[in-house]
Design brief:
alpha+beta, Thiol Ester Dehydrase, Chain A, 4 helices
């Protein structure tokens, strides 16, 4: 089955469809060997991620995973993690997935994103997975998903389509 075509039988269960497509989307090669170290060091400098308790748990060429424990102080009035927090970890996962494929001297910034909130964000922890869909010299398109983990079961919470830009030779802009 081609990844670009969703069969009607797949509409009820899109997660296996994304798993079927995973191998087709991750055949990317980084432009330098120490990309993981650069990505992790840049993430460590994001004080907002530290503030909300997010940590980077996986880095691969074109893919990043960020986990964040559920915390009451990050919830909205109904007890769910606030959509802004969910969007923040998903934006970072997509941005860093893009950075894994950029040149060593590049910095990454988000140009735009679209988020669909699929379900209230409640669980033991949130897992954001960002992946590159289409890398480019200047602009990279990414997709990402957030899942709530409860009793070792993942529930889809949000999905994102994002555009990232590679910036080079800009004073003060390094990752």
């Amino acid at each position: 089955m081609a990844c670009s075509r969703i069969e009607s039988s797949d509409l009820d269960n899109l997660r296996p469809l994304s798993a079927k497509c995973k191998n087709e989307m991750t055949n990317f090669q980084p432009q330098y060997p120490d990309f993981e170290e650069k990505v992790r060091q840049s993430f460590a400098r994001q004080t907002v991620m530290n503030t909300i308790g997010a940590r980077m748990t996986r880095v691969a060429a074109g893919e990043v995973e960020i986990e964040m424990p559920f915390r009451d102080d990050l919830s909205q009035q109904h007890g769910f993690i606030h959509a802004g927090i969910i969007t923040a970890i998903l934006d970072s996962a997509c941005g860093y997935a893009a950075l894994t494929l950029m040149p060593e001297d590049a910095a990454v910034l988000t140009v735009e994103f679209k988020v669909n909130l699929l379900s209230p964000a409640r669980g033991e922890k949130m897992i954001a997975r960002g992946r590159v869909t289409r890398p480019g010299r200047t602009v990279t398109v990414c997709a990402g998903d957030v899942f709530a983990l409860t009793d070792d079961r993942e529930k889809p919470i949000a999905t994102m389509l994002a555009t990232m830009i590679s910036l080079r030779d800009r004073e003060g802009m390094t990752d």
